[in-house]
């Protein structure tokens, strides 16, 4: 017979302010199997843990029920208490009396107390059927994969490499640097973005513990924390980087000009190119879609009739090292890693979704990132602020919260738009002193180190702030017209301007769903990747061994992205520093005598943890326990009831229902 101990936490006034803890304790004493029941003001505190530990030993308890807050908060804490008292840590059951009871029933104290007693009764019934569980040791591959070469990924890679571990940094673009490489200045200090970023990029390329794989993408991840098997596609560059010296002859002489993705279509690049002058690696790739010789080869291979397109091959003829390799194909590389850091960044909200703003239809209505490229000395205008016809703008409108704080698009604040909008206003006034700048805002949010001071500086420079949303942007007599309402004065107005900058919010990257599938990540309602716990585990994920860094978690500025990169690196280093880790013991188990071999469980498992096997000539399911996360999907889907879940068995769950 199990000897169960019940411990009720007051949690200060969080629980005891609503629930009659004394009544709950007295009710628990009368429940079947309960050998002891008591309460403490803070069970999670050191004295509270000592109180539970002493009660376990004095009353020879074999099972423990703790009525407190969410097990997400303190289950590990109380499991360690059991272990220190000589019990198997998985003989613990928690009843959530805070989130599930006192916090949601604060106006109905009598009913809340009755519900708390029911929750404890259920937990006792489940605990009486608990069995000891044991984790298995798993060896660790002491290498890390960092996915994404923006500032967060760069920081994570450098921190892990400086700790002495090998790092492979995978970036889908031909260069690392991410969005930050496109910026001109950074707020609020107005440091040159390239001056900050470029040394870090070079450091990554030269670090002996970092292998840089640009123009590459992760296609598949198998395995588990400590032992991931990752398939990476190295896209064909058509340039042998082991021979190329980056001399620049090829891209300087290439006759094919196409819109530059790095300049967001505002400038041109050649068919063989590096994205920008400070690119790392400083070696080109060939755009096979726009290359003339590749078009010629495609024509010949297709067997089409008619005159073939001209062969160019100027890059091959002029290359002094013979680095051009037309026969190069995509390569599939499989590597093993112990930890993965996902730092895949964000995209900018597409303002063409708001047709009344005229983006893509009206000249000189541009996005914030396009304006960054105009400001940049290596950008399409050499850093001069120019309209499409080459004139300097004399009146500029900056529209805040485009795609953010809007029920029609994204409800969340993108955090950086207010500050970069003020940065634009300052730089416009600096480069065109007689220009008028208007900021159309909902609320100014400048909650950061030096941010409020920067806001006041911009005010002193004569930038005009208008509180109100812009209703429409349309073509006027002398340029653009902005129709808006000033909510401070209550008036509706139309303002004539030369240029409109749309301060677009940050949104999840376009293929976030596919990335989530590959790395087994969850996503929050806004589409960004979901951390394990927003406060206690802000860079961990529910996929053990996979950590998040930068803006893929949610909007953030450069310092926050760097901090998240270092935090993810610290978590990865902590994992890689161990020789082995313990597997999750709450896993699914198959009763092969009941299994029909339908393998519906294999289809539904989100962690690829189930596979078929043949036992005594019969096809049945097998759980790969090192991959199983105990989600229970397979147990719920199994038609023959052959799958059970350790720690949440059918018998335990039915006992809870019967206890009610």
SS strand fraction: 15-25%
Which residues sit in consecutive blocks of at least 5 with pLDDT less than 50?
none
Give the structural class.
Answer: alpha/beta
Specify the number of helices.
18
Helix percentage: 25-40%
C-alpha geometry: globular
Fourth-tier CATH superfamily name of the domain at 347-507: FAD/NAD(P)-binding domain
The separation of the N and C termini measures 21 Å
**CATH class identity of the domain at 347-507:** Alpha Beta
Q: Say what the CATH topology of the domain at 347-507 is.
A: FAD/NAD(P)-binding domain
On the 0 to 100 scale, the average pLDDT is 95
What multimeric state do the chains show? single chain
Structure overview:
The protein has 18 helices and 34 strands. With 660 residues, it is an alpha/beta fold. Among the domains are: 4-127, 3-Layer(aba) Sandwich (Rossmann fold), CATH 3.40.50; 249-318, no CATH class; 347-507, FAD/NAD(P)-binding domain; 588-659, Alpha-Beta Plaits. A 5-stranded parallel sheet has the order 10-7-6-18-29. It has a 5-stranded parallel sheet with strand order 20-27-21-22-23. Helix 6 (151-162) crosses helix 7 and helix 12 packs parallel to helix 13.
Could you list some keywords that capture this structure?
globular, FAD/NAD(P)-binding domain, Rossmann fold, 660 residues, alpha/beta, 18 helices, 5-stranded parallel beta sheet
